[in-house]
Each structure stands twice: as structure tokens, then as C-alpha cells.
């Protein structure tokens, strides 16, 4: 959700900012801008992509201090004027901002009454004018920013520069991430480590309410009451190579293809063949505590929530603990009953999704025990929880989640195995799951080999205006994720239903113009699923079946047959062909696969 980059040091800032913005473009891509300080502020900003911005930044755009932004519109349409950075009326202060200022309307009205003329419709411009007023009355930019932020209601990650103080950048965070990057006599800041890894691996994450002053030779961080805070730098283990397409046409295809390795990394060092258990030291829980939980409640948003549904199923089956998943965005608003005997699990690839973070904070405030399943090390959710499981899937750049989804499902299998083996899951079943997990990467390779065949099927189905996805029990979250992938990247309307619910309403939609993708694993529900296929076909509906064996030819028009694992783990494999189907449908329809319209990676606003 918007990207921020800031630089101060001996080099020219502009190329560093542009390169950083390019790496952050997956977080926002409707407009972009940079400002550098060199005897006054020099600004360029455009509606469009970072590549469009690069075209209008002249070669002589010199200056060793600058800030940049790539935007995903919240207040005001995408336009040159609404693009960040925003400047104060006297052109002295420049600000870039992620997040939403809720009282912007009120603040704007006051400023306008004082004669300030606004150039944009954004909430951010308010900040530039307020800081410009405050800087006249205060000795330091730091103090001016602090004072301004006190009048703000809402969320922000900001970077601010002052033309009259060319030796510093001030950054601050409240609900929207800011990471400081430590270089050799140069300092960086960004909303995501992706923008920094080419220059430094030493980073410091700001906490909510913190502010940092960056100078070329170092930085200081402060709590909201201006008390200086001590921060230990963290070494990031992702490098610039993780952010390249690696020869693939799209990040999405690269990330789908990486799944045998990413999944292996999620399991690495965590499976124990002797006792058939999973070692999850990051949970920070001893066996007695682990045995004490009577329920598991999983929260996450979008695809993370669907992987939570797969997780709930795994936990109920393997550990026999009642478990369910709920969208974090709903959970946080319904005043949830927080129970001391429940283990709460928050899922987030980015670790920055605002709704999930807010739900975790609400749980913690009420004394709930929360663990995280998170990909981004050191992210806000990872810092907030009591313990957790890192995915180690590497950065996910494409907006649509793929490898993080499957790694999360694997992490749930590990958690379910762990919870199960301190309860009643037998060593034999533990071994079965451990062996099944070990087989997954090789089986994914086999599914990926079917890429071309799936591309042909995608072409065949892509021109339908709408598609139905159905699955039963373990297959239902798979169907939901399949529909989600298709709609978000191909813009083809897709509905997901439990196969058992079809005849309670949605069967009315079925006909030749609405094909169904049916998830039909070889499990105890096979016959029931085949009956559903018969019902669809009887209404003239086309069926693309994804399962473990060819059905009777009358039941499906097309079939994707994938390798069989243990029934509990099959959902992980069943997801892969649906990712490929969505990807190839999006390519066939000429969509912007990695940056689908209206969406952004990391939704750091409500
Ligand atoms: C779908 C997708 C989103 C995210 C959701 C949560 O492909 O990417 O639905 O899963 O926005 O994001 P994280 O996992 O970063 O909290």
C-alpha cells in the first residue's frame, strides 16, 4: 500500500530513490514522485508507473538528500497533483506518506481558513503545511514533525525533509511500516526492506509512535514522548536477487515455480524423524502449555484467511482441537470474547496488514495468547505476537499471494503435528504426516511440469464471464483460494461454494456459460463430489475437475490429475494447479499479472 524511500549521504539520491521505488512498485503503482534537496527542493511526480517517473527526472537532478513515493490512491484520484511528495506552500517542506489521516478534512478546513491554498485532494498535503507552520516555531525539524503528529488522527509512515536543513531526514511510524537502513556514511529509510537490500542488510524497524532522525553518519530514534530509544540493528537475510524476476516473464510465475524450494525452507530443521514431531522453537511454549489449549482461533485477511481455513482443518484432524478461522478484518470489530484456553494464530505474509495487526493488538490487550505465522522477519505482526513460525519463503513480490499461501499451509501442518503429538496423534500417524510433508516438494515439481497443459485449459476457460469453484470440507478453502486467485489477477468473476451447498441456491447459476472448477480429491468424500459433478453436468454446466484420477468421461469436460499425498496434506497440492490456471488465464486475457488493478501488496490501511 504505497511505498516510501528516503536517502541521505554522499551519493546522488535520485537514482537510489528511483531504484528503490521500482522495487516497491508492487505496493502501489498509480503514481510516483521524488524530491531532492539541493539549494531548494526539486520535485518531479507523475500519474503512472515508476518507469514514467524516471522519464521525467532529468539527468541533472543532483542532491544527496531526497525522498520518494509510489502511490496507491486512498484520498483523491491518481493524478500528477495527488502524487507524492507534497510540498508546503513556501516549498520548504516535502513529505511522503503512507496510511490515512482520518481528521484530514477538519485540518484542511482550518488551514484553508488561514489562507493556505491546497494543490491536491490528498490527506498528506495537510502534513506538509502543518509541518511548515510548526518548523517556524520550533528549533528542529524533529520537533516540528513531532508537534504536527500530535494533531493527527489516523495511520502514517512518513518521511520529511526541510530545504533549510539539508543534513537530515525525519521519518515516523504509526500503523504503517518504516524501516531504517544503515549504510557506510549514508542512511536510508523505506516502507519495506525490498527498497534497501541492494544497499544494506542492516536495518532497524520503527515501532508505532516512534520517530527517527537520519543524518549521513547515523541515526537516533525517539518514542512519542521524545525520549530516545535504543535499537538493535537486525540483519536481513533476503538479498536483491530475491527481488528479480529471475528470467521468468512475471514474478507470479517465478513465485509459483519456487514453491518446491520455499516449502522445503519452511520445513527445514523442523521435522524430527525419530519422534515424528515438528520442532517449533519460535512458539516459546513448553509441552505443558501446549497441551493446555482447548481451542485454536485463526485470523488473517484474504488468502491468508483461506490458508487459515486449511490450517483449522489440519489442526482439528491431527490434534483433535476445535479450530476455526475468521477474517481478521471482521474479528477486530466484533468485540471478540477472548478466552485464556484458546491459542490465537495470526497469519500474514507481509506482517504489516493493518486489520490483522489491529486484531492482534486487541487480542493482546485482552490477555490472549497469540502466535504469528509470518513471512517478513521483524515485521510489525512478528514483533507484536508472543511467538510464532516464520515461513522463510523469501519475499513475495507479485501482488497475488502464492508461495506464502502454500508455505503457510505447510506451517499449519507443522503446528498441527506439534499440537497433535503432545496429545493423541499416534507415532504412526506422526510418521505418515512427516513423510507426506517430505514428499510435497517433489510432487509440486510434477504439477509444475503440467504448466503447458494447464495454460491450454486456461485459454479455453478464460473467455467465460464467470466461473464457479466448488470443494467439500478440505477442498472448500482450496476452492475459495482458487476463485480468489482467478478474480484478482484475471478479473474473471469467480464464486466459491462448498460443493454441498450448490443445490441450496447457486445451482441456479449453472449452465453452459458458467463453468465449474471442481476440487475432487481421492478421499472419503469422493463419491459425494462425483455426484455433484453429475448434477452440474445435468444442467449443461462444463466441469474442469482437479483431483487424483480421471473420472467417468460423462462427469468432467477436462481433468487435471495431480499426485496424491496424505488426505490431510492434499489441499496444499490441489492449490498449485489453480494458481497456474489463474496465472495463464490472466496472461491469455492480457492482464497486468503482477500488479492487478485496484490492488496493492500489503494493505496497511483499514
Ligand atoms: C491475495 C492476497 C491477499 C493477501 C491479504 C493478506 O492473493 O495476496 O488476499 O493474502 O491481503 O496479506 P498478508 O498475508 O500480507 O497479511
From TrEMBL:
GO cellular-component term (any): cytosol
InterPro entries recorded: GATase_2_dom, GFAT, GFAT_N, GlmS/AgaS_SIS, GlmS/FrlB_SIS, Ntn_hydrolases_N, SIS_dom, SIS_dom_sf
Superkingdom of this protein's organism: Bacteria
Pfam family, one: GATase_6
The Glutamine amidotransferase type-2 domain, residue ranges: 2-217
Enzyme Commission number(s) of this protein: 2.6.1.16
Keywords linked to the UniProt accession: Aminotransferase, Cytoplasm, Glutamine amidotransferase, Repeat, Transferase
GO MF annotation terms: carbohydrate derivative binding; glutamine-fructose-6-phosphate transaminase (isomerizing) activity
Active site positions, chain numbering: 2, 601
Catalytic activity: D-fructose 6-phosphate + L-glutamine = D-glucosamine 6-phosphate + L-glutamate
TM ranges: none
Segments forming domain SIS: 285-425, 457-596
One GO term of the biological process aspect: protein N-linked glycosylation
Broad EC category: transferase
Localization terms from the record: Cytoplasm
General function of this protein: Catalyzes the first step in hexosamine metabolism, converting fructose-6P into glucosamine-6P using glutamine as a nitrogen source.
NCBIfam families named among the record's database cross-references: glmS, PRK00331.1
Subunit structure: Homodimer.
Protein name: Glutamine--fructose-6-phosphate aminotransferase [isomerizing]
Organism from which the protein derives: Nonomuraea solani
Amino acid at each position: 500500500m504505497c511505498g516510501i524511500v528516503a536517502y541521505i549521504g554522499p551519493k546522488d539520491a535520485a537514482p537510489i530513490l528511483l531504484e528503490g521505488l521500482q522495487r516497491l512498485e508492487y505496493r502501489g503503482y498509480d503514481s510516483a514522485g521524488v524530491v531532492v534537496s539541493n539549494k531548494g527542493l526539486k520535485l518531479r511526480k507523475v500519474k503512472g508507473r515508476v518507469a514514467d517517473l524516471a522519464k521525467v527526472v532529468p539527468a541533472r537532478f543532483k542532491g544527496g538528500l531526497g525522498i520518494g513515493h509510489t502511490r496507491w490512491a486512498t484520498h483523491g484520484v491518481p493524478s500528477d497533483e495527488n502524487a507524492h511528495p507534497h510540498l508546503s506552500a513556501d516549498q520548504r517542506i516535502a513529505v511522503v506518506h503512507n496510511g490515512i489521516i482520518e481528521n484530514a478534512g477538519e485540518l484542511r478546513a482550518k488551514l484553508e481558513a488561514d489562507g493556505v491554498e491546497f494543490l491536491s485532494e490528498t490527506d498528506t498535503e495537510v502534513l506538509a503545511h502543518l509541518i511548515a507552520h510548526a518548523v517556524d516555531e520550533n528549533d528542529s525539524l524533529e520537533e516540528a514533525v513531532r508537534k504536527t503528529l500530535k494533531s493527527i488522527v489516523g495511520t502514517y509512515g512518513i518521511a520529511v525533509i526541510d530545504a533549510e536543513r539539508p543534513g537530515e531526514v525525519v521519518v515516523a511510524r504509526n500503523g504503517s511500516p518504516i524501516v531504517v537502513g544503515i549504510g557506510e556514511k549514508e542512511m536510508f529509510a523505506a516502507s519495506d526492506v525490498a527498497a534497501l537490500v541492494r544497499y544494506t542488510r542492516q536495518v532497524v524497524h520503527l515501532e508505532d509512535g516512534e520517530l527517527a532522525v537520519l543524518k549521513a553518519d547515523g541515526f537516533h530514534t525517539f518514542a512519542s514522548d521524545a525520549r530516545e530509544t535504543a535499537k538493535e540493528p537486525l540483519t536481513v537475510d533476503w538479498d536483491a536477487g530475491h527481488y528479480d524476476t529471475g528470467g521468468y516473464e512475471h514474478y507470479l510465475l517465478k513465485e509459483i515455480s519456487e514453491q518446491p524450494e520455499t516449502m522445503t525452507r519452511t520445513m527445514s530443521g523442523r521435522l524430527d524423524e525419530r519422534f515424528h514431531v515438528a520442532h517449533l522453537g519460535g512458539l516459546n511454549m513448553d509441552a505443558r502449555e501446549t497441551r493446555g489449549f482447548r481451542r485454536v482461533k485463526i485470523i488473517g485477511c484474504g488468502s491468508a484467511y483461506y490458508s487459515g481455513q486449511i490450517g483449522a482443518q489440519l489442526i482439528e484432524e491431527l490434534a483433535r482441537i476445535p479450530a476455526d478461522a475468521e477474517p481478521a478484518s471482521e474479528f477486530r470489530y466484533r468485540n471478540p470474547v477472548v478466552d485464556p484456553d484458546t491459542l490465537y494464530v495470526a497469519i500474514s505474509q507481509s506482517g504489516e496488514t493493518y486489520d490483522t495487526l489491529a486484531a492482534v493488538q486487541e487480542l493482546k490487550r485482552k490477555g490472549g495468547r497469540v502466535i504469528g505465522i509470518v513471512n517478513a522477519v521483524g515485521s510489525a505482526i512478528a514483533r507484536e505476537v508472543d511467538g510464532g513460525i516464520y515461513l522463510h519463503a523469501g519475499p513475495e513480490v507479485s501482488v497475488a499471494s502464492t508461495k506464502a499461501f502454500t508455505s503457510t499451509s505447510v506451517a499449519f501442518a507443522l503446528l498441527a503435528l506439534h499440537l497433535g503429538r503432545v496429545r493423541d496423534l499416534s507415532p504412526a500417524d506422526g510418521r505418515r504426516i512427516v513423510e507426506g510433508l517430505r514428499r510435497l516438494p517433489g510432487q509440486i515439481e510434477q504439477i509444475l511440469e503440467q504448466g503447458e497443459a494447464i495454460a491450454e485449459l486456461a485459454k479455453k476457460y478464460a473467455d467465460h464471464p464467470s466461473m464457479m469453484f466448488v470443494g467439500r470440507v478440505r477442498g472448500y478453502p482450496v476452492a475459495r483460494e482458487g476463485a480468489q486467485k482467478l478474480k484478482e489477477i484475471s478479473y474473471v468473476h469467480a464464486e466459491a461454494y462448498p460443493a454441498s451447498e450448490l443445490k441450496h441456491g447457486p445451482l441456479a447459476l449453472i449452465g453452459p456459460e458458467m463453468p465449474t472448477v471442481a476440487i475432487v480429491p481421492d478421499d472419503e468424500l469422493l463419491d459425494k463430489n462425483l455426484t455433484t459433478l453429475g448434477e452440474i453436468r445435468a444442467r449443461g454446466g462444463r466441469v474442469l475437475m482437479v483431483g487424483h484420477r480421471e473420472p467417468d468421461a460423462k462427469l468432467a469436460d477436462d481433468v487435471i490429475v495431480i499426485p496424491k499425498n496424505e488426505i490431510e496434506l492434499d489441499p496444499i497440492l490441489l492449490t498449485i494447479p489453480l494458481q497456474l490456471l489463474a496465472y495463464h488465464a490472466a496472461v491469455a486475457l492480457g492482464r497486468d499479472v503482477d500488479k492487478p488493478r485496484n490492488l496493492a501488496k500489503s494493505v496497511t490501511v483499514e
